[in-house]
Description:
- It is built from 12 helices and no strands.
- The chain is an all-alpha fold.
Amino acid sequence: MIVATLCHTLIAPWEQGIDRRALLEVLLLGITGGTLGCWIIFYNLSYSTESLAHALLPGLVLAALVGAPLILGGALGLAVAALAIAAAARTPVIGRDTAVAVVVTALLGLGALLALSPATPAGLGELLFGDVLGVSDLDLLLAGILAVGVVIALGLLHGRLLLVGFDRLNAPALGVRPSTVDVALLLLVAAALLVAVQGLGNLLVVAVLVGPAACARVVTHRMFPMMVVAACVAILAGCGGLYLSYYARTAAGASIAAVIVATYALALTVQAARRSTRRTPAPAPATAPV
């Protein structure tokens, strides 16, 4: 009886087609987010990734308003953000970090204003928090192409990414241009954001790109094992989030993000406990009475 109940609990969320499609989307995005996220953390691009995700919002809203594909609107938003940041960064008084903050904040505010327009179609809130349960065949196809493309690209760039990450100054002497590697990595991040934002939303997409990799970094510091662990964490957290969404009746994207954050907190707790155990001196051996 207990075994039957347990089996039903595990299988029930996948009896409907939309849930199975959401699971497939989560698996594909987990592979992408886990492998690419390790390089995002290694190159200290977490803030840049979050900024790019927020900069997508005006383009997504405009695409929804005119009925254009969201991926085209997101690409337009990224292009405008890149040009605006480049223009603002050329002003010495502003500086690059301030330019990124100002431009991204302005674009996020513009997206919010557009979203409040009377002409805004219903369900536009999905752009912020995603709708992984409503993925289409095109979304799954794009997610599959992205996963394969990211894995192949990272495999081809692996040596160059390591070289630039560890020794940026001497990389040109070895025939590797750091600027080219940086651009290639940012293009992969942009592509991942464009595809993943449709399922996870503008505000939650960064969780699957940064959270699993942060968990993996607690476990290992070697890049290839870190990528494998991060992909596994992303997939398991995605499945756990879908289970939480099904039984707790919560939003799927937010549930996935919550499970990722909880997993990271657990990894940090385990790491702290291990360090505390190693630092605790062993008790002195008891002396036998004379």
